[in-house]
Amino acid sequence: MQIKAGDTVAVIAGANQFTTDKKGVKTRTTGRVIKVFPRTNRVLVEGVNIVKKHQRPKQQNDKGGILEVEAPIHASNVAILDPKTNEPTRVYVKVVDGKKVRFSRKSDSQLDK
Q: Is residue 2 a part of any domain in this protein?
């Protein structure tokens, strides 16, 4: 998996692929990767795939209720955003100075610092 925590990604498939603003213009949903689950090949993206979780109170002070939390989505449904063109792109890995570095396919720019 070539997606890491902290990457900015765009949703390219699924129900959360587009968001509609107040004027009715559809734009591609983007967000930052919070956590990566490599064993199940899923990623947690902030603001994407919001689900309602029913939680009961655990302590005397804590309130229960219905919370809205992000759920993981499959890594194949997201693509890393190119830093130059700000479009979804594929990634390739090249060895530079003995270290593996990720590069963008569209603009050939370096993703890792």
A: no
